[in-house]
Each structure stands twice: as structure tokens, then as C-alpha cells.
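A student in our group prepared the protein record below, which I am reviewing. I have pasted the whole thing underneath without changing anything:
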Amino acid sequence: MAEDYTAIIYRTEERIARITLNRPEKRNALNPTIRNEIVDALQRAERDDDVVVVLIDGAGPSFCSGYDITPGGGPGARRTEFISAKWFDGWTDQFTRSCLRDWLTIWDLLKPVVAKVHGHCLAGGTELASMCDIVFAADDATFGYPPMRGMTTPDVPYFPWKMTMARAKYLQLSGNGISGKLAAEWGWIAKSFPPDQLEAETMKEVRALATISPDLLAANKLNLNQTYEIMGFRAALSTAPQWHALSSRLRPGGGDFGRISQEQGLRAALEWRDGAFRKVGL
């Protein structure tokens, strides 16, 4: 039941299922609850013959600030589908495997999934958005992956598949953010609009898309996806858990962010990670 959701809002209208991330007080940070509910809602929309297109957006000032790294809400929180901690936690990186599994739900869904992005779309939020079939954003939205500066490789390494090599390397190596307008110019997303026009322009696009027969939409989505899979898309993404484990656990400085966060607080850890970039206006 849609009423059972606690971290998202789910509603359907005009052949569109709308999934709204609804943790505005946390900038819609992705904890296990909201991720489970997103996946459930996606699968629910796929089963509903009255739904043709799925739209994902966010309540409050931002689309999504990333994975919830606060105590009890972040990567340390175990999910029910995780397997034996004793045998697998130390080397298989179950958190990253779960992220990849969740967002491949979007890739595999027979119905197109559109993201409407405003405010901040960071780290895990960019993974969620980038796995959507189409992304529209506000011109002044901020896209970026700051954890690349001091923590790990991405949980879902989408960068090479969304833009040119030069731009993918710039963003993944630096962790810098860019505006929604520039993200559209770089080909990371489909289009950007002035903030006060984002809702109207997105709905114009989505309503038109929803008039197409769902079987034809599915055929075109599967045709496109198969082409990217022939080029190695899924195989490349499947390397994410290994690189994430190496960069977070075996790399000499892999635990520095977590150690500083535990000893001095999250604010100090973020300053350690991002301070040098802020000082030069990045």
C-alpha cells in the first residue's frame, strides 16, 4: 500500500507514477528505508497497467544529498538482504553491491524512469539520477560526487557512460560539482530549465511521453540498453564493489574520513575532505 511508505510519497495520475523522496529534513539522504521503498515503488509501478512512465523527484530544498552517512542511517546500517557478516562483509563490500542492485532496478524496468532534479544532487543522489533513463534539472541545481576527494571510488561508476572521457575524468578525479545547466551542456542529463519552470517543463515532457504505447516504450528502452550492454555497460558497473572495497579498506588512507568523523565529528571530516576546494571557490 502507498500509505505504508514512510520515506517516499507514491501517487499515480495521467498514466504517470510519481515517486517523491520525502526526507526533506535530511535533504533526502538515502538510508536503507528510503532505498527499499524506492525499489518497491518502482516495481509496483512496473506492475500497474495504468502506469506508463515513472517520475522520481525530491521534497524540500534538494533532490538528494547522497547516502546517509550519519550514525545508524548510513552504509553501516545492515539491510535485510545482506548475507553473513562473518564470511562476506570484509571483502565483498555488500553495501556497494546493494547500491548497484537497487539502481539496476531502474535500468531493468520495462517502463521509462525520469528524474526531476533541483537543489543538490550529490554522491549517491547522482547514482540514482544517472541510472534514470531521462533526467531534467533546474539550471541552478548542483551535480557532483565530493566523496571522490577522500573516501572511495563510486558505488555505481556511471561517469564514463554519461559524458566524454575528459569530463568524466575531471569530475571523478576532482569530486567537483557543476550546475544543472552545465550538466545538460555536457550531456550528463537531457535538459535543464530555469528553476521556476522546472515543474511545468518536466511535466510537459513526461505527459507527452506517457501518451506513447507502453510496449513500444519498453521495446525502445530495451533496444538502447542492450546496445550499451554489448559495449560493456553492465560488466563495467559490476567492478564497482571490488574497487570500492579496495579504495575504502585496503588503500592506506581509506579509513581517514571515518576516523576523523568519529573523533572530531562529521563537520570536521567534511572540512578535511572539501576545505581545500572551497578555499579556491570549487
In short: The longest strand covers residues 8-13.
